[in-house]
Structures are given as C-alpha cells and as structure tokens.
Design brief:
Elements: E1 3-7, H1 10-22, E2 28-33, E3 36-41, E4 51-53, E5 59-62, E6 67-68, E7 71-72, H2 74-83, H3 89-94, E8 100-103
C-alpha cells in the first residue's frame, strides 16, 4: 500500500510524517507549495513510480499503482500530464485507477 497525504495543517503534516516513518514507510517524497504540504510514500512491497515532477515544478502524483491508457508508472503519469486540459472526465475514461492529484 502506498500513501498520499495532502494537508494545509503543519501539525497534521508533521504527525503523519512521523506515523509513516514508524510504519516503515521510508521511501517517500515531501513537497510544500504555498501553505500545502504533501507526502507521497511508495508501497513497501513492489514499489511503483507514483510521482512525476517536471523542471517547472508541475507534478502528477498518485497513491499506489496507476494504469492509464494501458500505460503504467512514469509513462502513465506523463500521459496524464500531457492529456490534462482542465476536464477530469477524459482522464477518468482512460484510467484504471484515478485517485491522483496534478498541479499545473
């Protein structure tokens, strides 16, 4: 199981980060944008590529495994970023798993 946490509360962020570490999630990414904190943890078993960040600081992230347009991992996240046009429906139609967040 991978975890994705997004919060605007620093106390909650700190608490969840501590819980993740205690729970054995050591492979994680931490991000802060304005007053929003995000923690992305990879699965303990069979880690997958669930975070794609571009040089301009845009990103796409998912919790766990995602399959999009028959693509998997990094390629799926790249395709989601490319296909995103402010409407979620086309993304949902092409995703096997669509619990993700995208910043653009």
């Amino acid at each position: 199981m991978g975890r994705l946490t997004i919060t605007n509360d620093l106390k909650i962020y700190t608490s969840i980060l501590s819980q993740d570490k205690k729970g054995g999630f050591i492979n994680f990414i931490k991000e802060k944008h304005n007053n929003i904190w995000m923690i992305v943890t990879k699965k303990k078993r069979n880690p997958v590529y669930n975070y794609y960040k571009l040089p301009n600081d845009d990103y796409v992230v998912c919790a766990g495994t995602i399959i999009y347009r028959e693509l998997f991992g990094k390629e799926a996240l790249q395709a989601i970023y490319k296909d995103f046009n402010e409407k979620i429906e086309p993304l949902r139609e092409n995703a096997l798993y669509y619990s993700y967040q995208k910043r653009r």
